[in-house]
Predict the 3D structure of the following.
Amino acid sequence: MNPSGDAPNPARAIEEVLDAVRGSSISELEIEWEDLRVRVARDPSASNLVPPYDESAVEPDPEVTVRSAYVGVFHVDSSLPGHGSSLSAGARIGEIETLGMRNPIISPVAGVLVDVLIEDLAPVEYGQPLVTILPDEISDG
């Protein structure tokens, strides 16, 4: 019995042993009490089997997704060019009507319109993707 009078909990004992070994230079540890025995061994030369996360190795998505900042009804701007057309930064993409107010949706970058992801007069939620744009610095490259 342990000091609290409870029977040893094998799962908790294993957890504590692993915590003691993890992040240390300990390569082998064995603990035994009453009818419970836990032994942990590891190869210290294989301590970093998983390489550290390298953020530069992940290729970012080159497209910019314009998302709704409002809940309401999306109105595509009549001057919005078709797919594959150029957009300037600040170009009006459309509006979202919320409680009778029309809130403009503006292109944050200059580039090529890749896709309009929502139909005219469709209801939209906050954060919902509306259009994707391939920025000029990528589409020119």
Remarks:
- The CA atoms of residues 43 and 49 lie 11 Å apart.
